[in-house]
Each structure stands twice: as C-alpha cells, then as structure tokens.
Amino acid sequence: MKKILLLIITLTSLNAISQDINIPDVNFKLYLLNNPYLNTNNDKEIQLSEATSYSGEINCGYISNQGYDLIKDLTGIEYFISLTSLRCHNNRLTKLDLSHNIALSKLNCDKNKLTELDLSQNLNLTVLHCGSNRLNVLNLSHNKALTTLGCDNNKIATLDLSSSLNLINLYCHNNQLSTLNIAGNKNLEYINCSKNKISAINLSHHQNLKTLECDINQLISLNTSNCTDLVSLRCTKNQLKSLDISQNTSLLFILCDKNQLTYLNVANGNNYNFKDWGFSAKNNPDLACIQVDDKKYSKLNWQQKDTQANYSRRCK
Length: 316
Prior knowledge:
Blueprint: H1 2-18, H2 26-33, H3 48-53, E1 57-59, E2 85-87, E3 106-108, E4 127-129, E5 148-150, E6 169-171, E7 190-192, E8 211-213, E9 232-234, E10 242-244, E11 253-255, E12 263-265, E13 279-280, E14 289-291, H4 295-301, E15 310-312
Parallel strand pairs: 1-2, 2-3, 3-4, 4-5, 5-6, 6-7, 7-8, 8-9, 9-11, 10-12, 11-13, 12-14, 14-15
C-alpha cells in the first residue's frame, strides 16, 4: 500500500513538473521560448516548473528587430509567481492581471491600451511605469514601497499618494489632475506634473526636491523657499504673478515664460553658475524688473527676457 501511495505521489509530482502552461498569445510565447533562462530545456513549450522557478526579469516590450510582433494578451504570466521585474511596454495589452505575481518589484507597462490596473496584491512594487495608456483611475493605496511612479499621458483626475511615502520620482504629466497632494511625500527629488489643471502645490516639506516641472497648469502662486536642494525649475504657461527663488541657492536653471509676472527675484547668490539657456522669462508683458545678483553679468549672459524688463540688484 505504501509503495502504491509513493508511486501516486511521484507520478503526480512528475506530472506537475512536465505540465505545459497555457500561453495563447503567439508572440508572447515566442518571446518566452526564445529566452534560454526561461525555456531551460529548450523545447517548444513552457512548463509549470520553468515558470514557477524563474525569479528574474521578463522583458517583452516591443522592439521591431526582436523577431516577434506586438503582444495582445499576457495570459500565462500568472504562473511566474517569483517574477521580480516585468517590462511589457509598447504592446497592445487591454488587460493585465498581476494578482499572482506577488514578488514583482518593477513594472513597465507603458504604451498599451490599459483602461484599468489592479496592483493591490503587488506589495513589493518599488518602480511603476504605466504611462501612455487609457487609465482614468490608479489606486496605489497598497503600494507603500513605491520609489518611482510614472503614470503620465493618461486620463487620471485624482491621484492619492498618501500611502507611497517612499516616493522619490514622480511623473504624472499630461493627465487631468486638478490637485496634487504631495505633503507627505517628503523624499521626492523629481516631480513632473506638467500639462494638468493644478492650481496649487504645497512644497513646504520638500527640501530634497531637485527638479520641478510644472508647466502648463493653472498655478497662481508657487513657493519654493523650503526646497533648498532645488536645481531646476520649469513653470511656464501658468498664471503666476510673483516668483521668488532667492532662497533656492542651488538653482541653476529656471524657465518661467508665459505667465503674468510683475515680480521676479532670481538673486539666489548662484547666478554666475547659470548659463544662457538656464534662464528664460519671456512673454511676461507686465514684468518691468528682474532682481539678480549682478546686473552687468545678467545683461551680458541672459538674453531670454522681454524688452521692457530690466535687470537690477534691487527691484522696487
């Protein structure tokens, strides 16, 4: 009896090891078969044992010279339960079920046709790029480990980042955001929230911030005084009337064209390190005076301003 039971267990185990998984998309299957780290026995199928034991990266992002066409269906990915990185960008995916891929730490699904993305089971996710899809909603309440988020070029109207306190890089440009609450995301170093409908940004706790790109919004004020590490600022095409970056002593690059500025203070003690391309304040017709470190230096090196605006060490 014991011998029979042992035989049954052995046969069951062997069957599980040799079981072929269902991969209906021809191009996805072709990619997997051509990857020797995945298709370890070099046959014409991917076995369950091969899928479950693989802990590396799947990079099936479309590149025309790789010998396969665009992928429409990623069915079969659920068997890769130890997968840590998935790159499936530049394809034609309309759905993506990653609920079984709980070890996943990096995901790039940019440039697909996704209308929803459920990441509630992916608690280990640190890097997420889901830009250029058709997302209206992105729920990140379970993704506390995120350090990089790229959700640009979607239709997202609200974005709750209150759970992602480790966030360092944020790319949320070209969406439909009217607000951006990042008060708790104190580790942010890079923000690109351009091309939205944002009227205010609270940067009072962001001394680590190095780059801020907030062009083409509805900002009426912008206070960067606490952003002591800020190096680059782009805030063109807003409704700013006043802008003071005198406390941003590390700043080397500022573009504030096409606002409604009447006051601009760029005297941050670091103007000599600016280059000509690093300063531009054109198309601010009511701006008569720009406060700088050295009037002669700025007049000689900074040409990107309106003719009526003059440089001065002190603007009245």
